[in-house]
Design a protein that fits this description.
single chain, 283 residues, mainly beta, Immunoglobulin-like, Nuclear Transport Factor 2, Chain: A, five-stranded antiparallel sheet, 2 helices, 19 strands, rod-shaped
Length: 283
Amino acid sequence: MKKAALILAVLATVTLGTPASAAPKLSAQSIIVNPVPTDLSVRVWVDRDPGGNGTPTYRVGDEIRIAATVNEDAYVYLFNVNPDGTTDQILPNHLSGTHYVRAGQTRTFPAPGDNFVFNVSGPRGLNKVLVIASRTELNLSQLSSYRSGEAFATVKPTTTPGFAQALSIVVTPLPQNSWVSDTAFYTVAARAVSVPRPVTPAPVVVNPWGTQREWRITIDNRTDLRQQHDAYAAKLRSEGYVLVKTSVKNNEIQSEFRRAGGGKAELKVKRKGNRTEITVERR
């Protein structure tokens, strides 16, 4: 659908007399209301505000569901008045089936199982969802029309006052107590921007031999030879070398390493009295 800002309008028909009609009034939000008390009632809300008294926020791209309920059998018409003054007709449409709602029934749009969704697409700002319930089916031919192949009707007036005036013309001929309206509000905000987490660079391993091809150190301790060997073998692996052979004697461990693309290294760890000599040769 064009926009997810949507309005529900419910119109219902019932056998009554034909009392004189009364012109609808406009609320402060340019929404039509019936100035005559009626036993018919309708309520509309969006899924993030089931009570219908708040103004929840949706972001561009979010899914939205709109619901309405009536206390008598009635025809339900749903509209969404967008911040730029344009209006989307949600119900009736060619996908949701009948717009006749039974007393006490709650209709959700889109309903579970429908093969479409409403996605909020903007413009950003305050949206008004209008529902009208009428005991008599309304003739919307002067208000909206279906273009070829479209499932949702296009509302002809492109401003909020123009829409209110056109809708007033539709309901004015009705018996004055046979229709009623309700409004819900929600705000559309910009799509949330995900801020990438900073990437912590891997620590740079600087080996003690630097660029030297032959390196030797003697340390004054009796640390386990295997522990010393494994520590320096890890340093060679950090340079891309792979262990290919190890030989162990009583007081010496000697290993040979290779590197992809060429390159050879030898590691010797040898005990000499109370000292340990470590030799690394790279070719």
